[in-house]
Amino acid sequence: MKQHPVSDAHARYLRSLRRDAHCIRLSQIGILLAVLLIWEVGADLNWFDPFILSSPSRVFATVARLSADGSLWLHIGTTLLETVLGFLLGTVLGALFAVLLWWLPKLNRILDPYLVVLNALPKIALGPVLIVWIGAGMASIVVMGILVSLVVTTVTVLNGFSAATDEKQLLMRTLGATKLQIFTKVVLPAGVPDLISALKISVGMSWVGVIVGEYLVSKAGLGYLIVYGGQVFKLDLVMASVAILCVLAALMYYAVAFLEKKVRT
């Protein structure tokens, strides 16, 4: 297939987009490096108490020490497994529940006020109850991660399904389409952007739920390290765990962003 040549104006526009993307990426890296530099220099010059805020070099030394004795990978693996399970199960169950509510409009109207209340309810308050019901183990932590993302996913995806206008659905019914065909051809495509948005939200929410669960019951994981470090005043350990959490959360977010890019291309 013969490709049409790109005009000079269009080529300049594409180059400007690439320049803007490079500029944004360099600015992001520059801000990170500047923060780390100020943090390190501030600790060395006692602009703040390094015992409380630690420093990048001390954080790196703590990570290296945990990696050397092998405990780092146990804690990372534990938290990552709990978060991925909570994220996937919460997203899948939330999306399926949204499909059910769209499929049964009367049920949707019945449960709508309850969804509003559950969405506003701090799920963290249910932590002690989950421990009593399920037990002090990984299962209760995963359920916490599911609960935190479940309602948000349901509400977001259901709103996306509502983006499919009644005119389009009426046209499909006029043409003799079944409800399943209306859902797969009109409603589901209209809800894909909101489903991706729900995934982005659920990534952060799942991390919050899992870390809070580890605060309460875990004997391993990054949340456990944060609690333990605070209890024994090893704040380098706390800051190292927080830094690792930031990296892992960012990786999961960019994985979802990569999925979004693939879906929309």
Description:
The two termini are 20 Å apart. The chain is mainly alpha-helical and 265 residues long. It folds into 2 domains: 8-48; 52-264, MetI-like (MetI-like fold, Orthogonal Bundle), CATH 1.10.3720. The protein contains 11 helices and no strands. The protein has helices at 8-44, 50-53, 56-68, 71-103, 105-120, 127-134, 138-161, 166-174, 179-217, 222-231, 235-264. The radius of gyration is 24 Å and the shape is flat.
Quaternary structure classification: single chain
Q: How would you describe the shape?
A: flat
Secondary structural class: mainly alpha
Which CATH first-tier class of the largest domain would you pick? Mainly Alpha
CATH H-level superfamily title of the largest domain: MetI-like
CATH third-tier fold name of the largest domain:
MetI-like fold
* Residue share in helix: over 70%
Radius of gyration: 24 Å
End-to-end distance: 20 Å
Average pLDDT value? Answer: 80
Count of spatially separate domains: 2
Number of strands: 0
Treating each run of at least 4 consecutive H or I residues as one helix, how many helices? 11
Architecture per CATH nomenclature, i.e. the level-2 architecture of the largest domain: Orthogonal Bundle
Give the biggest beta sheet: none
Q: How much of the residues is beta strand, in percent?
A: under 5%
Uncertain residue segments: none
Give the SSE map.
Elements: H1 8-44, H2 50-53, H3 56-68, H4 71-103, H5 105-120, H6 127-134, H7 138-161, H8 166-174, H9 179-217, H10 222-231, H11 235-264
Helix pairs in contact: 3-11, 4-5, 4-7, 4-9, 4-10, 6-7, 7-9, 8-9, 9-10, 9-11, 10-11
